[in-house]
Every structure is written in structure tokens, then in C-alpha cells.
Amino acid sequence: MTAVETPAPAPGTPAREAPARRERSVASRLASGAAGGALRVFLLLVALFWLVPTFGLLVSSFRDPTDISTSGWWKVFTAPAQLTTKSYASLLENDGITDALLNTVWITVPATLLVVLIGAMAGYAFAWLDFKGRDWWFMAVVGLLVVPVQVALIPLSGLFRDLGIFGDIIGVVLFHVGFGLPFAIFLLRNFFAEIPRELLEAARLDGAGEVRLFATVVLPLAAPALASLGIFQFLWVWNDMLVALVFSSSDSQPLTVALQQQVRQFGSNIEVLAPGAFISMVIPLAVFFAFQRQFVSGVMAGAVK
Predict the structure, then answer these.
(1) Nearest to 73 by CA among 48, 43, 52
(2) According to the UniProt entry, which residue ranges have a biased composition of type Low complexity (predicted)?
């Protein structure tokens, strides 16, 4: 096989010059710098600035009420003897706050689990089961996403009163489940629709029914999306006060309502408010950080084909 030689340039012909390197603009240099250490330092500063109120509330929850009223929380760095656990002892002795904390758990956990479970089943049905009017029903569910909570407060108050559950925990749970399902169904249906059809057909050929297919194949694959949905629902229900103010009573009020009433009744009840507010804030943070890996995976699911 004969090699093809590149003809040499004719004598006197100037050699071809290498293309000149384009000079980078100022904007390009700034963008490259932002993508490196400068952006990381900026984001770190923003994160630290965002955590300052949280850290201040933590320190205040361990200070004496007299110290809180006379100086700022940063004084603890020069006088660490101010730190005490008396505020948390007062909190545990306050039956109203402890009962409200338990009510918050009894409201948030069932409302989150029911939304995730029912939303997963409905999302799978809309994605892979054929039934009459499926697309129209799904459009109706999507339309419910724009319905504000305030619209349903008065009608559901009358309905719950007729059912005898107004003022009970079950009424608050049902309200949160009803308004959490449209988003759950929309999110999970789009996630389930991206599961390869061949995988489901292979499971059916192996003899798996729809229930077994959903429980053993679909749910494990949807773990990141379920975790993301659970975090969203948990944070929304835990921090809610509007629905709890309307549908709960003095025996079923959650922590948000109890703290609000403490402010209105006592005004300066800091030894209860500071630790109660910190507990109300730190539990959702702990849940988020515990499932942050699944949360990121669920949010990014479907972003890359």
C-alpha cells in the first residue's frame, strides 16, 4: 500500500501561520473565575449569613430570659456562663407546648405518608394503566394545582362540621392530604412515565401482577422521587399555621399555633418561645438533611435523557 505524501510548498511560498489565539474578553474571564474558587467562597458566605439567625436562635434558647432582654445573643462569646438549660426545662414543664408538639407529629406524619402512598398509586395508574378518560382526569388533577387553599376553608369547614370532625386532628390531616395530592400525582406520574416499558413487560412476563409490579419494581425505582415528595409535604404541613388555625381546636392545635398563642397571651414569654421556636425549626432541617441525597436525586430525575 503506497503512502500518500503531502506536496511540499513551492519555493518562495510563505508557510501557513497557525491561527491566532483569540483574546478572552473581560466577561469571559469573570465567568471562568466565578466557576472556580470565587463562586465557592461567595456561596459559602451566603450559607453562613443564612445560618446566622438559626445560630442566634439556638444560642438564645440556652440563655436566661433576663440576659435575652438586656443584651444580644452574641454576648455569649464574652460571657459563656450565660448558657443554661433552664429554658428547655420550662418548655418540658409546659403542657401546652409539649401537647402541641405531639399534635404536630400526629398531623404531619400521617399527612405525609398518605400523600406519598396515594400519590404513588394514582401516579402509576395515570402513567401505565389504560382506563376511560385517563387524560381528562389527569388534566383535572393538574387544574387543581392552581386552586388556592383559602378557597376551600369555608366549604370544608361546613363539611367537617357535618361529619363531626371539625376541630379534630383527622380534619387537619384530611385537608392537608386533599391539597397535597394534586402536586404528588403530577410529580410522580411524570416520573413513572420515564420508566422503560420493556422493564415492566419483562416483569409481567415473569408472572408479576399489577400490585406486585408496583410494589417490587416501580416503588424501588421511584425512591428518590418519593423522598423528594415526602420532604416537600413534610415541610409544608409542619410549618403550616393557616389550616391549623381554622380546623384545629385547643386540644388538637400544632406547635405553630401554640407558639403564636404564647406570643399573644404572654408577650415576653421568652423562656418558652425561644426553645419552642428552635425545636419547631430544627426538626424539619434534620429531616431535610437526612434525606438530602435522595432529594437531589429526585429533583434531578428526568432532567437528563
Answers:
(1) 52
(2) 1-17
